[in-house]
Amino acid sequence: MPIQIVKTEITGKVWKIEAVPGAALSEDQPILILESMKMEIPVPAPLDCTVVEILVAEGDSVTEGDPVARIEI
Amino acid sequence: MPFDKDLAEFDRRKALALAMGSPKRLAERKAAGILNARERVAKLLDAESFHEAGLFASSIRPEMRDKSPSDGMICGFGKIGGRLVGVNSADFTVLGSSSAEVHGKKQGHVRALATKNGFPIVNLMECAGGRIPDIMGAGGIGMSGERAVYRNPRTVPWISAVLGLTYGGGAFTCINSDFVVMRKGAVLAVSSQMVTSVAIGEEEDPQALGGWRHHSELTGLIDALAETDEEAIEACQKFLSYMPDHAGALPPCAPVPAGSGEGAAKLLDLVPESRAKVYDVRSVMKAVFDKDSVFPLKERFAKVAVTALARLGGRVVGVVASNPMFKGGALDPDACDKIASFIVLCDSYNIPLIFLADTPGFLVGAESEKKRLPAKIMTFMSALEQATVPKIALVLRKSYGQAYLNMGGGKADVTASWFSGDISFMDPAVAVNVVFAVKQDQDPERFASLVKQVSEGTTAYELAAPFLAHSVIDPRETRAYLTAMLEILARRPSGALSERRLANWPHGF
């Protein structure tokens, strides 16, 4: 199955990691949540997938386009 | 029997044409679960309703006549649920349904009759591109310029399905359509990888060149996705159910399904009170509009905005909603394109527009500016201001800055807000940073006091006092309120028909 890198679409701080490696997610289910623009904004799964690796830690700052997770689709 | 010889010849020719391309190719398609051009027409239309035009047409080149049954395009007229439509169904087993003289002329005939007589067109497309050698040389390309039609003035709905490799003219027909559904595995691109590998030395997987993920996520050039041919054809039928036959008519009403509006009572639970929390606006739409009537377009592209056809009390409406679930609902350049294109569609086919706003504003920053955000915002606004169908704007929670105006605030026929509305030039917390130069971590007490002070001027009631909001409503009243406003706005003496100022807006954005 192909591996895909999930990138953030906004700049912010990693507030909470929601999914662990091995977790099966549906499209649009949150992988992690960023704190940005005074909101808690999810980084969602782009497709139905399995999480392979989370590439950031809670508290990390990320900018738009940064890789945050590897998923298998 | 009289005419024995003629009847035999007629039957022989008919059988040859109906047999389409090579049996091997037809068998390969069948094995892969892909319908052929005639099976697709049968699936699309009511039984026994198809009247074919051009069964005996063939290539204009004498030496190719026997190798080009129907010249690779099955054309005609039929009915979908009793409604008349024109059909062009590409037969890839005949010369790759490549674009050529007679092949184009047949599609033009269907377009001309549909336009003149006011009924929609469905294109079931595959296309290898321009036919070689027909299109080669100065004469070939020159002739194609005289034949091809590249303008869709939105007189009648054009509905297209991308059902295989679709390049060149076939791709352009789809792009110029009002609705495009793509079957997974199909490709929509200007040129195949055979051309790109030679012309620019680029070896690209066709899916990366123009596959379903490319178009549903990155380009937004398709409106819907399907797993199979059958599903794609059903999507065409579904889109048609929201469309009028032509731009001079209103879309058809439908009976209101039992259970519609039952979710309205849950609206207070669906939307978090804290504006720091997000939610999926699609759940709000599902609760407000007629049961199972919400039909999203370009759902996987620019997810910060939802654009969907739906029904309210049986009437067709177009809904534009910012979705806090993605990027907090901050509208980005792609969302502007998506919304502008949707406004054009709805305005051209007499579909009232409803805007649901919960947005922190436009997504500002270097990346957005590189993607021409100021121009995108104004393109969106220009479409909104020129649209003459009934327009209703409703603020759900926050709606800040220029995005408030773009989401219809003050621009629609009616502007309203839920009691949870929070309307301002910018987020109160950001405003305290910018206006008073006070940061939360430096002086939390003063920061909190200033946020409270700024927030007092941003409530729905502050919008209602100078009558900038015509109503402030309980979220649970949304369905009833929108239905009542729609009834008022649809009474206009023009019969609620649009002035169609946007009808010539280009389809590709």
Q: For the report, how would you describe the main beta sheet of chain B?
A: 8 strands, mixed
Highest-level CATH class of chain A: Mainly Beta
Question: Counting H and I runs of at least 4 residues, what is the number of helices of chain B?
Answer: 20
CATH level-3 fold name of chain A? OB fold (Dihydrolipoamide Acetyltransferase, E2P)
Alpha-beta content class of chain A: mainly beta
Count structural domains of chain A: 1
- What is the string of SSEs of chain A from the N terminus onward? EEEEEEEE
Give the SSE layout.
The complex is a heterodimer of chains A (73) and B (509).
Chain A: E1 3-7, E2 12-17, E3 24-25, E4 30-36, E5 39-44, E6 49-54, E7 61-62, E8 67-72
Antiparallel strand pairs in A: 1-8, 2-4, 2-7, 3-6, 4-5, 6-8
Chain B: H1 4-18, H2 23-31, H3 37-44, E1 51-53, E2 73-80, E3 83-90, H4 101-117, E4 121-127, H5 137-147, E5 158-166, H6 168-175, E6 179-183, E7 187-188, H7 193-199, H8 206-210, H9 212-219, E8 224-226, H10 229-241, H11 267-270, H12 281-288, E9 295-297, E10 305-312, E11 315-322, H13 333-348, E12 353-359, H14 366-370, H15 373-386, E13 391-400, H16 401-406, E14 414-418, E15 422-424, H17 428-436, H18 444-455, H19 460-464, E16 471-473, H20 478-489
Parallel strand pairs in B: 3-4, 4-5, 5-6, 5-7, 6-8, 11-12, 12-13, 13-14, 13-15, 14-16
Antiparallel strand pairs in B: 1-2, 2-3, 9-10, 10-11
Helix pairs in contact in B: 13-15, 17-18
What does this structure look like?
Chain A is mainly beta. Chain A has no helices and eight strands. In chain A, strands 1-8-6-3 form a four-stranded antiparallel sheet, with no helix packed on it. Chain A is globular, with a radius of gyration of 11 Å. The model of chain A has no long low-confidence stretch (mean pLDDT 93). Chain B folds into three domains: 4-241, 2-enoyl-CoA Hydratase, Chain A, domain 1 (Alpha-Beta Complex); 262-421 and 459-489, 2-enoyl-CoA Hydratase, Chain A, domain 1 (Alpha-Beta Complex); 427-458, no CATH class. In chain B, 38% of the residues lie in helices and 18% in strands. Chain B has 20 helices and 16 strands. Chain B has helices at residues 4-18, 23-31, 37-44, 101-117, 137-147, 168-175, 193-199, 206-210, 212-219, 229-241, 267-270, 281-288, 333-348, 366-370, 373-386, 401-406, 428-436, 444-455, 460-464, 478-489; strands spanning 51-53, 73-80, 83-90, 121-127, 158-166, 179-183, 187-188, 224-226, 295-297, 305-312, 315-322, 353-359, 391-400, 414-418, 422-424, 471-473. In chain B, the strands form two sheets. In chain B, strands 1, 2, 3, 4, 5, 6, 7 and 8 form an eight-stranded mixed sheet that branches. In chain B, strands 9, 10, 11, 12, 13, 14, 15 and 16 form an eight-stranded mixed sheet that branches. Chain B is elongated. The model of chain B has no long low-confidence stretch (mean pLDDT 94).
